[in-house]
Amino acid sequence: MELTVWRTFVTVCRLGSLSAAAAELNHTQSAVSRQIAGLERQLGVPLVERHARGVRPTPAGEVFRHHAVATLNEADRAVRAVRDVRDGTFNRPLTVGATPSLAAGIVPEAIRGLLERTGSIRWNLLPGLSAQLHNRVIAGDLDIAVVTDAPPGLPHGSRVERRYLGLDDMVVALPVGHPQAGPGPVHMQTLADQTWVEDNEGSAALLRQHAARAGVSARIDLTAADLVGKLALVATGHAIALIPGVLTGALRTGVTTMPLVDPPTRGIYAITPRRDPHPSAAPLLDQLATAFASVSPTRFQAPF
Asked: N or C terminus of the chain with fewer C-beta within 10 Å?
């Protein structure tokens, strides 16, 4: 598949209009339509649907758009890196991976602290699940990854260094105005009849384990594609959810949180390759420890 067509599709989704995308890309509308139709033939599924004000991605189109944006961003970075080498201005960017909840909070804060202390450096932040990020560190795609030991746990490997940052208490996310909302902490038994939403099996496993310890079961009736979708379902009143405590400072409007009695926890770790570490990885590790301690001071522990 040609990336030009991917760019056309992403532009159509962003603008919600074939004609607007054609104008921005300096194409004819018929050319844009042909590119989208060709992409749909290749994938064997409709990617866009028409509505009164233009077009929008289908569910399959939204999934493809998410991956297409990531692929196009990575392709753009590759082109810039080659041009930097050509122009003699190459310096290796710091590539950081993080789980979605950590990428939304402590990791950007830690990078800001790093930049304040070391000056300008080139860096990238790539989200992913813990096992995927661990493998990307081993493969050399990431200089550092901030991950958790939530189920199924972290792989063990001799090719990475692991630094423990501390424990993160999981909390309950509820829509603002929910009858159960309050300062807490709340017992799981009180929430047993609620509808829950989950976006990945690791978080769902923590929820089931916590409910089992309390002698009840959790009704995970809804599934979201990702953390953003999970919080959207909470904000609109469809469900409640178990979310990481480190995420509470970055929640969208319409969502509130409440602590649990004897909450489930997950360990937070930073992993780096044993060989050829990036020069900025070590100072970033220190900033990550500081950032985590600031959002979870009672659960922060010195690395070992």
From this structure: C
Give the separation between CA 204 and CA 230, rounded to whole angstroms.
12
Quote the CA–CA distance of 116 and 171 in Å, as a whole number: 32
If DSSP codes are grouped into helix, strand and coil, which group holds residue 187?
coil
Confidence at residue 231, expressed as pLDDT on a 0 to 100 scale: 92
63-105 pLDDT tens trace:
999 889 888 888 887 787 677 667 665 567 899 999 999 998 8
Task: Give the model's confidence band at 1: pLDDT under 50 very low, under 70 low, under 90 confident, else very high.
Answer: low
pLDDT in the model for residue 222? 93
Residue 44's CB: how many other CB atoms inside 10 A?
A: 7
CA dihedral for 213, 219, 223, 227, sign (positive or negative): negative
Tell me the backbone φ, ψ of residue 256, rounded to 5 degrees: -125, 165
Residue 289 contacts residue 269 (beta carbons within 8 Å): no
The answer, yes or no, to whether the previous bond of 152 is cis (omega within 30 of 0) is: yes
Q: How many CB atoms lie within 10 A of CB 217?
A: 12
Q: Per the omega criterion (within 30 degrees of 0), is the bond before 185 cis?
A: yes
> Is residue 300 pLDDT above 50, yes or no?
no
Q: For residue 242, what is the enclosing H or E element?
A: strand 241-244
**Closest CA relative to residue 278, chosen from 71, 83, 134, 124:** 124
Residue 34 has pLDDT above 70, yes or no: yes
- The label of the residue with tokens 């990531």 reads 70
Strands 144-148 and 265-273: antiparallel
With 0.70 as the threshold, say if the pTM is over it: no
- Report the alpha-carbon distance of residue 223 to residue 220 in Å, rounded: 8
Residue 50 to residue 182: CA distance in whole angstroms: 43
Nearest of 81, 21, 255, 284 to residue 165 by alpha carbon = 284
